[in-house]
Design goal:
Blueprint: E1 3-8, H1 12-24, E2 32-39, E3 42-49, H2 56-85, H3 90-102, H4 105-109, H5 112-126, E4 128-130, H6 131-138, H7 140-176, E5 181-188, E6 194-197, H8 205-214, H9 223-234, E7 236-242, H10 250-260, E8 264-267
Helix pairs in contact: 1-2, 2-5, 7-10, 8-9
Length: 276
């Protein structure tokens, strides 16, 4: 009978459950027997093959891959959030990890077929394996790549959270102030600038943006900032976007809608829409 030995400081219980579920699927006494032993901080799992023809090594390899993806990786990503980004809120940590998993960054990093094949070969050649040892040495480069990709996702997440906080502050401000203008009509131009018209459809673009332009370099206008700042300053009761497709920056349109909510409407078929 062949004996396979698995060493681990933290994953034997997960491995036992996975292998026990596999064993139960077979008739009679199964295809192997599990025996646990302890040595200092390491748990030793002895696996005795009852069926020499059964691919136990392959099943163990697949189970270890599952542990790497669903247990080790979670702890690894969590440690990055805590140590590198000082993130300690449990729900926030889980949310970032969930988003990263949904984007399948683990699948991008880990070649599952190669990992299973290598694990299986080690077991067939030596009849033993240390789970943490395999991760730390055989997956060292993959973990560096994983940390890099995950850091990109974390930075995007933090930027989004910062954006959401900013939007919420603007929404609160808008709701707490009285409107100083009834209606503002907005038309986007091909050069990414905007035209503004009042409730009587009078062109007020020059007066609307003059104060903001004075504060900027004449060669470095940010028309999107001018648009948002003007609307925040004016706080119109109604904002009508004419020819929505003319708004080349969809993000600024999204921001206006989030901040002013029900005050924003869209028109695509009036004489102002054809003003361009």
């Amino acid at each position: 009978m062949k004996i396979l030995t698995i060493y681990s400081k933290g994953y034997i219980e997960h491995l036992v459950k996975l292998l026990s579920d596999i064993n139960k699927s077979f008739t009679n006494s199964g295809i192997f027997v599990l025996e646990k032993k302890f040595y200092q901080d390491t748990t030793i799992l002895k696996i005795e093959k009852l069926d020499e023809d059964a691919d136990i090594e392959g099943k163990i390899a697949e189970a270890i891959l599952y542990i790497i993806k669903n247990h080790f990786s979670v702890l690894f990503l969590r440690s990055i959030l805590v140590k590198k980004y000082d993130m300690n809120h449990h729900e926030q940590i889980n949310q970032v990890i969930k988003i990263s998993k949904e984007k399948q960054i683990l699948e991008m990093v880990f070649n599952e077929d190669e990992i299973v094949s290598e694990l299986k070969q080690i077991l067939m050649d030596t009849s033993e394996i240390n789970i943490e040892g395999f991760i730390n040495f055989r997956l060292k480069e993959s973990l560096k790549i994983l940390e890099t990709l995950f850091s990109i996702e974390v930075i995007e997440y933090l930027k989004y959270q910062e954006y959401e906080s900013f939007i919420n502050l603007l929404k609160f401000y808008v709701k707490s102030q009285s409107a100083s203008e009834d209606t503002v009509h907005i038309i986007g131009n091909e050069n990414k600038s905007y035209q503004f018209f009042d409730k009587n459809e009078k062109d007020i673009t020059k007066n609307a943006i003059s104060n903001f332009i004075d504060e900027m370099s004449s060669n470095n206008y940010d028309y999107d900032d001018i648009l948002v700042n003007y609307l925040i300053t004016l706080l119109p009761e109604k904002i009508v976007i004419h020819q929505e497709d003319s708004m080349q920056n969809r993000n600024v349109l999204h921001t206006i809608r989030k901040v002013f909510q029900e005050r924003v409407s869209v028109c695509n078929d009036c004489h102002l829409c054809k003003h361009k």
